[in-house]
Each structure stands twice: as C-alpha cells, then as structure tokens.
Automatic annotation (TrEMBL), chains A, B:
InterPro entries tied to this protein: CRISPR_associated_Cas2, Virulence_VapD/CRISPR_Cas2
Binding site for Mg(2+): D9
Name used for this protein in its record: CRISPR-associated endoribonuclease Cas2
Origin species: Streptomyces aidingensis
Complex and partners: Homodimer, forms a heterotetramer with a Cas1 homodimer.
GO BP annotation list: defense response to virus; maintenance of CRISPR repeat elements
Cofactor(s) essential for the protein: Mg(2+)
SUPFAM superfamilies linked: TTP0101/SSO1404-like
Length: 97, 97
C-alpha cells in the first residue's frame, strides 16, 4: 500500500466547480481522509490508485481543474507537520493508540 | 535539502482570509513554487523550514486556518502525477532540459 496525497484545485465560486469538488471528495473518501477542503490523504495500492484516477479524470473539468498526486514515503501520512487547527489523522488501525 | 509539500486551508471568502493566503504565498514563494491556489512545493533545509514555519505561524489565524507540511521522498517533487491542467514543475536547475 502507498501513502499518497491528492490536491485538487477547482474554482468553487461556480456551482459546477463546487459540485465537482463534492464528487471528487466522495471518490477520494473511499480511499482515505479529507484533511482540508481540497486535500485528501489516500492509502491505496497501484490498482486502486489507477481506478481512482480514472474515476476522477471523468469527473473533473480537465480544461479548468488541476489535480496533483504526490507519493509520500512509507507511513508518510503519519509524519505530517501541522500549524493552526490541522491535526495528524490516523489511517491504519494499528496506529490507533 | 528536503522536498516538501505545504497545503493551506483558509476561508478566502473573507477579505482577511484572502489577505492571509496572499501573505503565506509570498512567504512560501521564497522557498519554492505555488502549484495550486493553496498548495506550495518547497525545497528547503531544516533551518530554512523552521524559519519559514515560524513566519507562517505568525501570519495565519491559528484558530481558523490549517497548514499541513508533508515531507516527500528525495526528488519527490519531480515525481508528481497530474490530471487536468496541472503540470510538473522544475525546482532544480539540473532538472531543466
């Protein structure tokens, strides 16, 4: 399984953009957590990631929206630094104390 | 040097929030690139990162805003997957073809 970070840039001042963000959020939440309005922490294997990206690609407006997917180091999602109200969130049962 | 990803969640529908985002963007752009409205790719060493985080902490509203900083693998910023209008961007001179 890979730890991934997916960021979505979409103009949510338009109703269509807000709708696309809701749809992408729903897709991503099947594989992880929404940690900011348009940032998703994802744990997936190669096949799941391909499936997710195909679904997202058919959901977004590919001429307006931007999606970036970063691969983190092993257990990288447990190693995030935060400022403000952000909190580290647990993805794997074995990390729950 | 570390490859880092910094994501900022701030309510930009308020003028104060939009102003804080502009200020954080200006701080981050000293260390990297703004690749989405509130996503910054940063290349920094430990001392630079500490300095940047201290400046950001005194800029954001710590009771409303969320900042997350992820450490990527070595050269992780050159290894991003994209959909839509997103493009991989070069940070190091030696990567320019």
């Amino acid at each position: 399984m890979m730890d991934l970070l997916l960021t979505y840039d979409v103009d949510t001042t338009s109703p269509e953009g807000a709708k696309r963000l809701r749809r992408v959020a729903k897709l991503c939440e099947g594989y992880g957590l929404r940690v900011q309005k348009s940032v998703f922490e994802i744990v997936a294997d190669d096949a799941e990631l391909l499936r997710l990206l195909a679904r997202i690609d058919s959901t977004i407006d590919t001429e307006r929206d931007s999606i970036r997917i970063y691969r983190l180091p092993h257990n990288g999602l447990a190693d995030v630094q935060t400022l403000g109200i952000a909190r580290v969130q647990s993805h794997r049962d074995d990390l729950v104390l």
